[in-house]
Write a structure and sequence with these properties.
The protein has helices at residues 26-30, 45-53, 77-90, 106-115; strands at residues 9-10, 13-16, 41-42, 59-61, 67-71, 96-101, 120-127, 132-138. By secondary structure, the protein is an alpha+beta fold. It has 2 domains: 11-61, Alpha-Beta Plaits; 67-138, TusA-like domain (Translation Initiation Factor IF3, 2-Layer Sandwich), CATH 3.30.110. The longest helix is centred in the middle third of the chain and has 14 residues, at 77-90. It binds iron/sulfur cluster.
Length: 140
């Protein structure tokens, strides 16, 4: 049986551990404003880069509800968009999931804009060349 593409979970936020932070400022250079809410830093492309660059490992995953990851690379192409629209419709306002694909899912972005106007948050976490990851959130 193929793995369930929606079973993987990813954290939605990270935090700055004050015990480990040496206030070097590297994370602020990469993700300005990251220290404004050190207990709840949202996972974005910039904050992921900051986490990777932190010399002490002070940027850590937060506890709490993780974000569902949907890897459509193992899904038949014709089934992908219905699966993703269902996942989107199942989100509560403010929730998100992470889409993983082997090409830029830009057509999906336009389809969401057309069919769920005003509700979509779309943020690239990784843009190729082999893997694309997008945080897809629901605003209301
Ligand atoms: S990069 Fe790490 S050690 Fe440097 S300020 Fe940011 S959290 Fe602190």
């Amino acid at each position: 049986m193929p793995p369930d593409p929606t079973s993987a979970l990813r954290p939605t936020a990270m935090r700055v551990d004050p015990e480990a932070c040496i206030e070097c400022g590297i994370c602020e250079e990469i993700a300005p404003g990251i220290g404004a809410a050190p207990e709840h830093v949202p996972v974005t492309r910039q904050t992921l880069e900051a986490m990777a660059a932190c010399p002490t490992g002070a940027l850590r995953w937060s506890e709490g509800e993780p974000m569902k990851q949907i890897d459509v690379r193992t899904i038949r192409p014709r089934d992908r968009h219905p699966l993703l629209f269902q996942a989107f419709d199942d989100l509560e306002a403010g929730q998100a999931f992470e889409l993983v694909n082997d090409h830029d899912p830009k057509p999906l972005y336009y389809q969401f804009q057309a069919e769920r106007p005003g509700l979509l948050e779309w943020e690239y976490l990784e843009q190729g060349p082999e893997t694309w990851r997008v945080r897809i959130g629901k605003t209301a």
